[in-house]
Write a structure and sequence with these properties.
four-stranded antiparallel sheet
Length: about 575
């Protein structure tokens, strides 16, 4: 929580202004009961009506000042709290952008969303209340006690007797509530996770008639959150009536003992009325303090969750001293795996073992193998989504760990296994690969990707609006737009992670032929399930359980690799291996 509060430093002058306004407000509130006592003792009792009007006017002025400073304090408190929340949200988002896949796996996407939204909102709300109460409550309590003692020291003993009971009740409830606040945030994470899975996987859910099961999952997550919140609110609901009961009993006791002291001539009626007002202010200050203690634990939980994100160091970082030397010409457009081995975090067995090959400009390197053989893992290592455990990966002759991530990725055009499109126009999605791409470059990339025909047939052509995720396109159309997005970038290395799976054989063949003709100054790496997609490759790498079991052309592997023969046979029958 302290680390989060330190982020208020840009608002130090506004904070000083808020504290000044709150100080003036507290002093004004403390002055009003004394003025009321003067009116009763010196005006009403003595029958001095002009004095009543005079002090009454002063009271109105003080009350007006209190309202003005209260409004101003609320305005600036809100400004500080909202700005503080905005800054934290921006910092969290920027920090998460540096995370490797390992950190996303560790924290969870649903939890990161909750922390960036709900947790920061909790801090904003608490901060707004805290800025008002953190100074008001102590001032009202200390000032009220001083003023009450000045009116009648003996009668103040009644207040001192009640305060330990109030403090004890608050501490007891806080001890019970703190674990529940932590449980609330965890259950909120779970609810967001289930909701996210239901919304993103709605087609699969409906296809398998699992609506009832998913509804029960959501119901369970929602019920768990509801039950925990009810427990918290029961505790909080118990606190306020208890404090009001103690407050009213205290007032009754003061009126009783105050009446005795007035009857004995030791106290005036106006002083008793002022004393009651000061006691009410003391009790309300205690209520405010208790509210702070109630809301602070939840804010502390949220702050700790946010701090956990900010303190999570990315496992992949840019080198402190980057190698900015220009690679030699004959290395441009090359990709090299030099005895690369990779373990996933916590895994006992390697996902890739001793991978070694080199791809040169204009060459197509294809990677094929069964499910779980490590094909996508190999692709993910190249843009440094994960870092190699042993060995070296070089792009353009440079070790990718010795240059910045931005520099590595600027040399890559990646088409992921699952095509992801953004809401916006077709041209905006293709231009995502190159911000300053001209329409001619966009059309050329679309033609190579075999996307120009279906784009031109749309009513608005390249200005056609796409829904979120490109849901108004077919799988093959989304795949081709994702390919065009990589092509328009004109990188040194193209990575196609099973990107042709949604294409028919004819479109697949046309696309590969166009790539062969157009891309002569860059390496192409294709991960594929279909043999037809890799037959023309300059180099085919056969992976099995993370090991290279064969490397060569289609004809060479038919002679030397039993695994490749089995893959061809499974897809094309006996004649395919002939």
């Amino acid at each position: 929580m302290i680390s989060i509060l330190k982020k208020l430093s840009p608002y130090k002058w506004l904070l000083a202004l808020v504290f000044l306004l709150v100080f003036i407000q507290a002093l004004s509130n403390l002055l009003l009961p004394t003025l009321m006592g003067f009116i009763v003792d010196n005006g009403v009792v003595e029958g001095d009506i002009p004095y009543v009007w005079k002090i009454g006017g002063v009271m109105l002025g003080v009350a007006a000042l209190t309202v003005i400073v209260a409004v101003m304090a609320s305005y600036f408190s809100s400004k500080i709290a909202m700005g503080h929340g905005r800054d934290i949200r921006k910092e969290v988002f920027s920090h998460v952008q540096k995370f490797a896949f390992r950190e996303f796996d560790q924290l969870g996407t649903a939890s990161l969303i909750t922390r960036t939204t709900n947790d920061i909102t909790q801090i904003q709300q608490v901060m707004m209340m805290l800025l008002r109460m953190v100074l008001t409550a102590p001032l009202m309590m200390i000032g009220g006690i001083i003023m009450a003692v000045s009116k009648d020291a003996k009668l103040s003993l009644v207040v001192l007797g009640v305060m330990p009971i109030l403090v004890g009740a608050v501490l007891f409830i806080l001890k019970k509530a703190m674990p529940l606040f932590k449980a609330v945030q965890k259950r909120l994470d779970k609810l967001n996770l289930v909701m996210r899975e239901n919304l993103t996987g709605v087609r699969v859910i409906r296809a398998f008639n699992k609506e009832d099961i998913e509804s029960n999952r959501l119901k369970d997550a929602n019920t768990n959150l509801t039950n925990t919140l009810i427990k918290v609110n029961k505790l909080m609901a118990f606190l306020m009536p208890l404090m009001m009961l103690l407050m009213n009993l205290t007032v009754v006791a003061i009126i009783w003992f105050g009446g005795v002291r007035i009857d004995s001539g030791n106290m005036q009626i106006g002083d008793l009325m002022a004393f009651i007002q000061y006691v009410m202010q003391i009790m309300f200050a205690l209520v405010m303090a208790s509210m702070m203690f109630v809301i602070l634990p939840r804010a502390a939980v949220s702050a700790n969750r946010i701090q956990e994100v900010l303190e999570t160091e990315p496992s992949i970082n840019n080198p402190k001293t980057e190698d900015k030397t220009t690679p030699v010409t004959d290395e441009k457009g090359t990709l090299e795996f030099d005895h690369v081995t990779f373990y996933y975090p916590g895994a006992e067995e390697s996902a890739l073992t001793d991978i070694e090959f080199k791809s040169r400009p204009g060459e197509v390197t294809a990677i094929i193998g069964g499910t779980g053989s490590g094909k996508s893992t190999l692709i993910n290592l190249i843009p440094r989504f994960y870092d190699v455990t042993d060995g070296t990966i070089r792009i353009n002759g440079l070790d990718i760990r010795k240059v910045s991530q931005a520099r590595v990725r600027s040399a890559i055009g990646l088409v992921p296994q699952k095509a992801f499109l953004f809401s916006g126009t077709v041209s905006e999605n293709i231009r995502y690969g190159k911000e300053d791409a001209t329409m001619d470059e966009i059309r050329k990339a679309a033609k190579i990707a075999q996307a120009d025909d279906f784009i031109s047939s749309m009513e608005d052509g390249y200005d056609t609006k796409l829904d979120q995720g490109g849901s108004n396109l077919s799988g093959g159309q989304k795949q081709r737009l994702a390919i065009a997005r990589a092509l328009v970038r004109r990188p040194d290395l193209y990575l196609f992670d099973d990107s042709f799976s949604a294409l028919d054989f004819k479109t697949d063949a046309k696309l590969r032929q166009a790539l062969k003709q157009e891309v002569t100054d860059a390496s192409i790496v294709i991960v594929a399930q279909r043999v037809s997609s890799v037959m023309d490759a300059d180099r085919i790498i056969v992976l099995d359980q993370g090991h290279i079991r064969g490397i060569g052309t289609h004809e060479e592997l038919l002679e030397s690799s039993n695994i490749y023969q089995e893959i061809v046979k499974s897809q094309h029958g006996e004649e395919g291996t002939a």
